[in-house]
Amino acid sequence: MGNDTKGTDAAATSATLFGTSKPNVAMGYIAVILFSLTALIHLFQYFKNRAWFLYFLGLGILMEVAAYLARLINMKNMNNQGAGIIWYFTIMLAPSLLAAACYMIFGRIIYWVTPESRRGFRHLWVPARFIAIFFIFWDVLSFVIQCLALIIILSQVYNTDTDTRLRAKALKTGYNVLKIGFIMQICVFGTFALLALRFMFVSKQWRYDWPEGGNSSWRKLAWTIAGVSCLIAVRAIYRMLEFTVSQGTNYLSEHEWCFYIFDSLIVMVLLVSLNLVHPGHYMPRDYCTFGHDFKKPGFKKDPIVRGEEPASARFSHISLVPQPLVPSAGTPMGQPDSSSKCEDPWNHRMDTPSRYLKGAFTAS
Fold it and tell me: Which of 169, 247, 277, 348 could share a disulfide with 224, CB 3.0–4.6 Å?
């Protein structure tokens, strides 16, 4: 009789943690292998690119690997409470750390490429130096709420001494608190996506030499971060819907394939995308340190916005008074002096006088 009760409790625990009493062990092995591979690649890139500021990303990846290892152990032994607790905690909370990494990366991109005169509230809606802090604060708050909810849920999952009705009521309370955390997370994602998209379009109006690598390099990274952030939002919506209806009557929580599509696959696409477009490869070393000094002057050059150039600005740098051509020492008379070059105030490059004048009178 005792064995029957133990078997029933194990089946109930499996239904709560996995959505089914018979989880797919083969898929468990595949998930462990894939997440371990991308984790090793990220570890290599972390040290190769010296991307020390990606500690949130590293912690999130380690939690994902730990989650699937614990899930595999728990699949084989449903009575292993330690593995069950590790699995449920880490799989729910790891994406919050991945989201915090995205906020930090995008915040440093904005501070890197935005000229000082455009870093305020008027142009970005959130000052550049506070963008990462603002979103990470709300992300951590939702993280704490989800932690409290998971403590309530797991304390009842493995508690067989409490009355069934009281246990069900406590589980419902835990699920409701967890939904609040997911709703907060979705709102943060939505606000971040709005600001990110606005920045990507507004920044196209700024006409100057983008730092290091040209216009396409940092925009490729920024679009990647915005895209994977939207994927995390889809995953949060799935988790919220999973707990909207009570356990046992919700299709999303009853079918394991939904978890692999809307959670595992989404997080895997996120991690692989950051493998292919790694922030440490695209960003300068000064912006990959543990802590960036936001009081330190950054990209100072003011942008030239299309249609707003003053008429005098195009010709103010041209002197109408002929200047004597004095060759430098060692240059024969009658030959051009290669050292006499002018600095172009429009794009901060060194250019020859002929191209300098040509660019000044050419319509932009």
Answer: 277
Cβ(14)–Cβ(252) under 8 Å?
no
CA separation for the pair 304, 207 (Å, rounded):
5
Looking at the chain, list the stretches that DSSP marks H as alpha helix, in order from N- to C-terminal side: 2-18, 25-48, 55-76, 81-113, 121-124, 131-157, 164-202, 215-242, 251-254, 256-259, 265-276, 279-282, 353-361
pTM: 0.73
Cβ neighbours around 351 below 10 Å, total: 16
Q: What is the dihedral of CA 94, 98, 104, 108, to 10 degrees?
A: 160
The reported pLDDT for the residue numbered 11 is 53
360 vs 314: CA distance, rounded Å: 6
- 239-261 pLDDT tens trace: 888 877 554 567 777 788 889 99
Dist. CA 267–CA 238, nearest whole Å = 13
C-alpha span between 58 and 71 (Å, rounded): 20
Tracing tokens 């142009």 back to the chain, one arrives at 123
Kindly report the average pLDDT of the chain as a whole number: 75
pLDDT over 70 (residue 357): no
